[in-house]
Amino acid sequence: MNLKSSAIVLATTLLCGICYAQTQTATQEKQTAPLEDFKPSTLNQPGQQYPQVNSQGYARFRMVAPQAQSVIVSLGLGGTRGGTPLTKVTDSVWMGTTAGPMEEGFHYYRVTVDGGVFNDPGTLNFYGSTRWESGIEIPAHDQDFYALKDVPHGHVQQIFFPSKSTNTSRRAFVYTPPGYEKGKSKRYPVLYLQHGWGEDETAWTNQGHANLIMDNLIAEGKIKPFIIVMTYGMTNDIRPGGGGLRNFDIKPFQTVLLDELIPYVDAYFRTIADQSHRAMAGLSMGGFETHTITLARPDLFSYYGLLSGGTYKPEEIKDKSKVKLIFMSCGSFENPDGVTKAAEALKAAGFNAVSYVSPNTRHEFQTWRRSLYVLAPMLFKD
């Protein structure tokens, strides 16, 4: 099987996994009547009271659609986790509450009004499903690790780097740790961190809070500061009508990352520009990209991370001495046994392999926030 065929097969498998995970029920617990302690979601537009969430994790939605005959809120990436029908409560207002509590963390959603798909004007939008989707946050019991705190903060800056292979300038976001701007000689390791299918280079900071996770870990003295680079992981058209994942070929993106972005970052940022101080990780499709590229170019990366993005096999890695860490994770409602067993097989073969299973989460950002929180302290320890 050639590289493009392998890419299509694995990417399709990952997408099927996404769809399967997101069509599951929102909770395995017995449904109960929601408590009436609803508060506006933290992701609402300024001054907007809906959507709301309560202490149990239920979500309540309100739409103004006077001429509508049907209003449905669909949750999950692409609206694939079933719908919450809203009821018309006045001549123009529709309201409804999820049938049960939702899992902790960030969720995409969309509104269908008489068959047309719209975003909720009450909340902020986030790029997913190859479009801007509405977002809602269900407060998590462990949200402190990505909370905005009174600690020194790093900077996230947008850069544009020349790409001869695609005949354009491409965008990336670069996180530099607190104190980077004040230094003149100190150099830093780099993590290249990839988003999932249908998302873009904004996902890890907007949905994932990667910068806040880093700031808090650094403030607590739990990690060695490093740079994170996030760029768009596709080079072809994946919008509706563009062929989707069926036409995905990783080779052009591999060229962009290895031959154009990495040299640009090493030239314009104070990096430690060698294999032993460079890592690559990604969620879902970004994990597939990480898996393929790290195996193809072990001379460039020494730390590998697959977040709900598959696993490595010992026989795939030709030179054990080049790999310092293999990290694999997923949500407990995904494929935890596969991840755990893969790590055990790698350990038995002499690799430094770690598995992590996020409790009570699926193929979603709470899984990946927690995964980054666990992974980051393991990077660049030498």
UniProtKB/TrEMBL annotation:
Signal peptide (from-to): 1-21
Entries under InterPro entries matching the protein: AB_hydrolase_fold, Esterase-like, Ig-like_fold, Ig_E-set, Mycobacterial_A85_antigen
The entry's keywords: Hydrolase, Signal
GO MF term (any one): hydrolase activity
Recorded superkingdom: Bacteria
Pfam families per record: Esterase
PANTHER family recorded: DIACYLGLYCEROL ACYLTRANSFERASE_MYCOLYLTRANSFERASE AG85A, ENTEROCHELIN ESTERASE-RELATED
Record-given protein name: Alpha/beta hydrolase-fold protein
